[in-house]
């Protein structure tokens, strides 16, 4: 196995400058995509846990004013569903204090505030997903470019000799196939990660949408009851 590894390293070291550049680009893209996926896995996992905790506290039947005070007094900043609730509750309370504003207007104002925070949160959760999509869609073509260039060099070397042998073209073809393999190695995890994280973001977006509508219904009932 050690000889095989050394032969691969030797092929990369002896590859043409352009093919080496292609391999370096693919290596950097792969490392960057893995870094994004690790960070995104943690971010979305924390967002799902935070949403579940908040929903449990919200639907526990306690006083929403106390829940609002608890959230605003916590040292760390609010994100996700907590931030949406804070924006809606604060705007609704402010709207009810404005003279001449109806309950319906206060609820709609709260809805708009929550929608703004909702879109901001989704934009935060979607950050760098486009990078994963780009790596997944372009890496095979970048690797294919290195493959084509390596094979072209091999055939160019054949044209300069009288008698062609397999040993003359094997290194060029091998380095070309390495570029192809590196392109696939960068693309496949990025595509899987993108699909997985995009699905999680979509599920969180649905939960946020549902919460906004449910909270607006509660605010409307409370406003008319007052």
TrEMBL record:
It is a multi-pass membrane protein. Residues 82-209 form the MotA/TolQ/ExbB proton channel domain. It is found in: Cell inner membrane; Cell membrane. Pfam families: MotA_ExbB (PF01618). InterPro entries: ExbB/TolQ_transport (IPR050790), MotA_ExbB_proton_chnl (IPR002898), Tol-Pal_TolQ (IPR014163). The chain crosses the membrane at residues 6-36, 129-152, 172-194. Keywords: Cell cycle, Cell division, Cell inner membrane, Cell membrane, Membrane, Transmembrane, Transmembrane helix. Belongs to the ExbB/TolQ family. The Tol-Pal system is composed of five core proteins: the inner membrane proteins TolA, TolQ and TolR, the periplasmic protein TolB and the outer membrane protein Pal. They form a network linking the inner and outer membranes and the peptidoglycan layer. Part of the Tol-Pal system, which plays a role in outer membrane invagination during cell division and is important for maintaining outer membrane integrity. This is Tol-Pal system protein TolQ. It comes from Natronospira bacteriovora.
